[in-house]
Amino acid sequence: MMYLLFFLLLLxxxxxxxxxxxIIKQQKKIAALKExxxxxxxxxxxxxxxxxxxxxxxxxxxxxxxxxxxSDIDFDDLFCLVDRTTSNVGQQYFYDTLSKPxxxxxxxxxxxxxxxFFTKNEKxxxxxxxxxxxxxxxxxxxxxxxxxxxxPEKPAWSKFLLPYMACIFLLILLAYxxxxxxxxxxxxxxxxxxxxxxxxxHTKRFNKSFPQLNVxxxxxxxxxxxxxxxxxxxxxxxxxxxxxxxxKSRLLTFDDATFKDELTQALLYFFELIKxxxxxxxxxxxxxxxxxxxxxxxxxNLFKYAGSIDSAISIASLRAGHLKTCExxxxxxxxxxxxxxxxxxxxxxxxSNDITVQFKSILITGSNMSGKTTFLRTLALxxxxxxxxxxxxxxxxxxxxxxxHSSVRIDDNLLDGKSYYFEEVTVMSGLISEVKQSGxxxxxxxxxxxxxxxxxxxxxAKAILSxxxxxxxxxxxxxxxxxLAALLAEEYALYHFAEKIENDEFKFDHKLKPGxxxxxxxxxxxxxxxxxxxxxSEARAxxxxxxxx
Length: 549
Prior knowledge:
Blueprint: H1 2-36, H2 47-50, H3 52-56, H4 67-72, H5 75-82, H6 88-99, H7 105-120, H8 122-132, H9 161-177, H10 186-202, H11 204-224, H12 233-248, H13 262-277, H14 280-294, H15 296-319, E1 329-330, E2 336-342, E3 353-358, E4 361-365, H16 372-386, E5 396-399, E6 403-407, H17 420-433, E7 441-446, H18 454-468, E8 474-479, H19 482-487, E9 492-496, E10 499-502, E11 505-508, E12 513-514, H20 522-528, H21 533-548
């Protein structure tokens, strides 16, 4: 009796210690979430993993940012700043969202309401984040692999497996009566172990995804019970559809790192050999792959559900930070756009600017380092953010629904043997093809055709910029060519960035000003760097003659 009481007391103490330990862990998680709120992530970003869902998600969308545009606006750096997601599922979903600006203003406003909900309800938000933490394992990135259209197929030789395994079972049965026959099982045992690990190696990416899919199902079940503004009716149906898949996945490999004691490890290794001998994982895996093909819609529903919740919390965290943000206002499809105090969030203490577009596109002149290219990128990224996360870096931002196309950063493609000019021609050809497509586009261009001679550059640029400016399309372009500005004065409103030279130093205010640039300081810069007087004098004379001709 005393032993029983002692045992019960011991269990009680262990339970209390365990409960206390769980409470402390929970408190630490909550403290970490509170500390991270409104802050940018201090973590490494593996875009090979983060972009998987974006690569496999073939759903129709209004617009997909091109690789050129992503490079032009430093998309990955922008993502690192605005991503405040808790889970890897949310991070992949958020990346896909930013890559695909939408024309569904109603959906954007619904997203905004969800963001506001999490902003106002801190307790619920933290409870949801604690659930999402379970989806932050690195293997969680591979759930999205199940959504692709290139799932692994059974190897051709698998059609011989059933009769082969039937022979093994028959041999085992006969060996029961003639034990000497057990020696004959050594060969099929070796073959099956080889096939087991060979298949696991070839399907490693997908094997990692199934245990994490279980976690996703479990977390979505719990999220659906929360009183949050996300439709859970479809989710509950998808969860039920995926239950058989969840049960099958338990036959796949356990994560050995989870188990620490030697006895458990030994039992797991023994169980692993049994599974290998009977090719349990092989048959289970391809059975599950077949089922996945029929239930990709259900998996996608859960992925988007958890991802959209995490994304809404991420946007709420971004808005709560020190960077000034605003909600965009969407205009009708006309040649108009207005931004007040728009700025580039990746530039510390960035100078903000105002811009108003009415019936004309915009041509900007100015010297290097004056702010032209930064302004183009500022406009481009705010256009994207307006149509993805309903949040802009500005005092206010009014815009139509737009498709963004750009040509800002172009490099010589020496490996393909292309010159800078040919790269420009290739990129510009893609932009021109968008003019006749449906919807309204915005074209962001920096120094059109700077890879060729002046006369043909100006002639080609004028013709192309007039073509891009058709219909309601908006064009924002920078140039050093004052001749181009004069040729386009009827179609484009002219703006400029200027600088001053004081005490042999450049002074940039980085403010956008209306009208054409009327000053030039290229020769003055040569003079500042102590070029010989003979060179300065001749350059001034030639410049004067050219301007008068």
